[in-house]
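Quick one: structure tokens for this chain, please?
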Amino acid sequence: MTNPLILSDAQQTIGRRWNDGQSLDQARILGLARDALDFISATGQWYPFDDSRVGGWHHGSPPAADERSTQLHEQLCKTEAFFERLLNDPTAADEQPAIQVILDALRFISSTRQHEAFAHFLEHLEANAPPYVMAAFDSREEAEAWLQKHPSPPLFAEVLIGNKPHDVVYVRETNFRRLPWNRRLHQYLSWLEEFDPPDAEASFSTLEEAEAWLMRQAHPAKRTWVKVAGEFYLAVYYSNINHRALFPMSMAVRGSKELKSS
């Protein structure tokens, strides 16, 4: 198996080309390449991606004829053309392996016809929503049963267990499987408190009332603040798995203390 750190190396190559004076067009190209790499990690597609790199590419059919998918397909093609030119640029010779990974990521999304899934992922990012998750479970037992039965667990993806974040760890060669807890949601809430200070859209006396309100929303926002018994909560909708959750701001405070002491 190829070292998954090649995705990180590719991100660094993109970062070195990002500058304040760049054109809007280049910003879009670099941003889409960055997000394509993140999409592969966040959706747990490292093994399929790595297998595709070894097995070679085929050109997928054009995406379904809706405006959003068509525009994304065109932008992917434009981004691919940019990095193809860069791959042949003598001044970028030292970065060719990383540039090839970027090209492979773009081609993987197109060849597997994941335009719609990628578009949903981009919307999630644009909303500054919490870390992307691929599944949600009420209990640890339910999550463990899913993990053990899954034919190919989504390595690097995140899942919620009782609305607490966990990573999917899977080693295909040894069939090692684990669901360790992570702190990313705590870090995110700490960041969001500064980026978008809480301002409640609605207030409730009990958590049950807030949960009922969230479930009634026909088209919930990706994220919005509410207040429950005087405490701020972040109401979140994960459209990719149709899951709704309420995260108390106390998670951010607790997470910050843990991070300082770790």
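The chain has two domains: 6-126, 135-261.
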